[in-house]
Each structure stands twice: as structure tokens, then as C-alpha cells.
Amino acid sequence: MRTYFTKLLDSSQQHKQLPLVYPLLIALIAGAIFSFALAPYYYWWIALLSPALLYAVLRQRSAKQAFFIGWAYGIGLWFVGAFWLYTSIHVYGDTPAILSVLMIAIMALAMGLFTAIQTWLYRRFFPETPLTFAPLWVFFEWAKTWVFTGFPWLFVGYAFTERFLDSYAPLFGVFGVSFVALILACALVEILNKRIFWLVPSLLLLAGAWGASQLNFVSEKDEPPLSVSLIQGNIPQDLKWLTEYQLKTLLIYSELTRTEWGRDLIVWPESSIPMFQTDIEPFLAAMKTEAEKTGSAWVTGIPYWDLPESQQNGQPMYYNSIMATGTDSEGLYKKQRLVPFGEYIPLSGLLSWVLPALQNDPSMSGFSRGAKEQKPLMIHNSPLGAAICYEVAYPNLTRRNASQSDFLVTVSNDAWFTGTAGPWQHLQMVQMRAKENGRWFIRATNTGVTAFIDHQGDIVQQAPIDQEAVLRGELPAMQGQTLYTRLSDWPVLIFSFLLLILGWIYRPRKVDVSFKSRR
């Protein structure tokens, strides 16, 4: 095997390389176009083309060159793919347009380093093959879920949420889907380079996707589904936290809910109550009474001030939370994953000049993190797993919640990103989480996208965005667990690690030949 890799590398060096500026430009464009593979565009084939271009331009490049090529790709990926942040920074953060763009550019430079380090490692220590490129990519996607609290966005696997490869999701999660897509993308490059034998593993992976689609890990419980109403208040973000608008917000949600009492479950979105529970106890008591009188369960997002914990710690402990009350229903879930610059401002004293409008926003006052192990909400004595907004982007967090629940709920306020791709990318992640865990997901949002998503990850019903709406649907309880729910990301991570170990053992004596030759 060592001889094969050495011959492969030596033969490839017979071709004259293009000046570095060309692969840098190609990588930048390849990264920039990637987000068009995701919602709301759905050009899934770009999720194959984009990494394939990066794989191709890295051929024969030194580790030093690969670092900058990968960085160019990452900069394009994050600047375009996460440009929806501009709306929250400029429009709602009251930051000048030029400074807002500069902040996104700095974010892209920082996040792009993930790909830069990935490609440097690839060319420095491993042979040029899909069997090392794909595992490294998966490891760095996984790293984005925990390094510096994580920014788990723009994964390759999400492009196939409702496409053929998504059948791998209940087995190996989104990283498994990413792995398969990357192998296929790189194999295409190899086939175009007349290494036809890569047709075999490509066809096997496609056949495996078909076989996986025939598996069924979960089934509906033999009990009637819950009748559910999702309330979308459409409260403008610039008014949401104003003291003078708080009463109107409650009136809007109460009026939309008035006709829904008697349904099994009524869900209000994230922070739909823009006050701490301590400030609104009579209202909460009245809602609980109405829910119990009509046989309903009521779930709402609300800022929660934990007074006993505050007294114990000697400082206010605020949580972004979901509470449940009503007939045979109770529970409180505290958000575990907080959004930097969205729910707290790192180094807020030093950065107050950057986002001046957010300094007086109660949602930015410094929420605390909820405990890792929390009980699910109980709805008519059935467990309901919860995720608040950004948390649904973390596969393993949702998996833990799903493992002890019959169905799932996520509440969100994507009004920060109205008119951008952000809410649609967010919805696509919810679809993947439903598919991974074989659970129905209900998503209640302030402005959209409010939806019912079945255990296959398909959108069953969806409310119109940017308007007041009530979405009614049925929510069946599911039983059984997918392989992913049981084993988490470990199978794909261990397999990727083994491939990298084999690649390192059987690498050519000098992997980074072009770098060595220049010394």
C-alpha cells in the first residue's frame, strides 16, 4: 500500500502546477457558493461540487500552500454562508453598515481557520486520497460543535436533509451524511483523473443509502396523537423588549390563543413572554387556570429568574427557558447553549461600543447556562424533549433530549434574521435532528418558520412567515430508538479516526513533497 501511494504521488507531480493565485481564487469561490446547497436554495449538487473543487486544487500543494488555500475556502464559506448575521448586527444592533460587514469579515477570517488547519494537516501528514480528506473534514465539522462553545453551522450533510443520502442520518447522524457526500465528491475528482476504480466505492455508498432507507427503527405508539396549536405572534424585534410594548405582546398572544383552548397542547415561541416570571405571576396563574379548565397543556418560552439559585450564588441567575403547565403537564427547561452576541455579550464592558442598541436589551443581560442533565417537559404525562433556538444546531444535545422523549419541541425567535437565509438554514437543522432521532419535531417561532416536522425529517405543515398565525396539527408519540440515538457520533468518528491512522501509517515517505523540495 505504501508503494501505491508513493507511485500515485510521484506520477501526479509530473504535471506542471498553476500559480498559487489560481487555486486560492478557486477555493474562495468554492467556499462562497457552498451555502447555495442549503435552504432556502436547495442546490444540493453544490455540496458535492464545492468540496470537490477544494480537493482538486490541493493536489501536489505544500502544507504551507494548503493552509492558505483552505483559509481562502473557509473565508468564502463563512462570509457568504453566515452573512445573515448582518441583519442582527446592523439593523437590530444599531451598528454602522461598514462596521457590520467588517465584523462578519473578521468572523469569516476566524472561522476560516478551521478549514486552513484541516487542509494543512491533510497535506502535511496524509496521502492524497478521499479516504483521508473526508475523515479530516468530518473531524473538523465535529470540532465546530464544541471548540470555543461551538458554531455548528454550514455542514455538508445538511444539503441532503431531504435528499437520497439522508437515509444515513438515523444510522450515523449528520456527520455520517457529510462523510458519504465527501467521499462521493472526491471520488468524482478521482474518476475524472482516470482512476475509474473509485466507481466501485461510490456505487456501494449509493446502494448503502438505498438499503438504509429500507430500515425502520421507530414506530408510533398505540395512542391518539396530540392536537397541537403553534402560536406565531410576529412581534418585531426592535419592539419586542420595549417596556411600553410588553402588554401589547401579551395581548397579541392571548388573543391568538383564545380559540385554541381545548386543544391538547398550545405552544408559544421563545421569549414570547418578554418579562421574568417573577414580574408576571398573576398572568401565569391565569393561563394555568385556563389550561386546566379546558384540558390543555400550555408551553411557552420565558426568561426565568431562579431566585433560590441567585441567593445561593450571590448574583442574579437568569435563564432563557421553556415552561410547561396545565392539565397533567409541568416542567421547566433551561437553555444549555447560549449564543455569543445573541444572549450574552462576551467582554460586554469592552465591546459596548460595537453593539450599542443591544446593551439595553434584557435578553442580552447575561443569561446563565442550564444544567447538562435536565428532565423533559411532561405533557399529559408524556415526555416532551425541548431545545431552544440555536441549541437545535447541536446534534448530540438534541440526541440526549430525544433519548428520553416521545416527541420534541423547539421554540425560536428568528426575527433577528428576517428576510435572510438564516431562518431557513435553522429549519433545515431541525429537519435533520428529527430524521436522526426518529421523533416528530414541532417548531414554534415568533416570525417564522413555524412548522410540524415528522420523524422522517419532512415538513408536514408550515405557517406563513412574517405574519400572525396559528398552525394546527397532530403530534404522534414515537417509540424505539435509532442507531444514532443509541450510539451518538462515535461510530463515524471512530471509523474516521481509523482511516486517518491507516493513511498515516501507509503514507508516502514524504507526503509534503513540494514543501520538502523547496527547502
TrEMBL record:
Lineage: Bacteria, Pseudomonadati, Pseudomonadota, Gammaproteobacteria, Moraxellales
Membrane topology: Multi-pass membrane protein
Keywords of this entry: Acyltransferase, Cell membrane, Lipoprotein, Membrane, Transferase, Transmembrane, Transmembrane helix
Keyword Acyltransferase part of the UniProt annotation: yes
UniProt record similarity statement: Belongs to the CN hydrolase family. Apolipoprotein N-acyltransferase subfamily.
Protein role: Catalyzes the phospholipid dependent N-acylation of the N-terminal cysteine of apolipoprotein, the last step in lipoprotein maturation.
Name of the protein this chain belongs to: Apolipoprotein N-acyltransferase
HAMAP family, A to Z: Lnt (MF_01148)
Organism: Acinetobacter indicus CIP 110367
Family matches, as CDD domains: ALP_N-acyl_transferase
Keyword ATP-binding appears in the UniProt entry: no
PROSITE patterns reported in the protein's UniProt record: CN_HYDROLASE
Residue intervals of the CN hydrolase domain: 231-477
Gene name in the database record: lnt
Gene Ontology BP annotations: lipoprotein biosynthetic process
Pathway per the UniProt entry: Protein modification; lipoprotein biosynthesis (N-acyl transfer)
GO molecular function: N-acyltransferase activity
GO cellular component terms given for this protein: plasma membrane
Signal peptide (from-to): none
Pfam families referenced in this protein's UniProt entry, alphabetically: CN_hydrolase (PF00795), LNT_N (PF20154)
Residue stretches spanning the membrane: 20-36, 42-58, 65-86, 98-122, 134-156, 168-189, 196-213, 490-506
Localisation: Cell membrane
UniProt EC number: 2.3.1.269
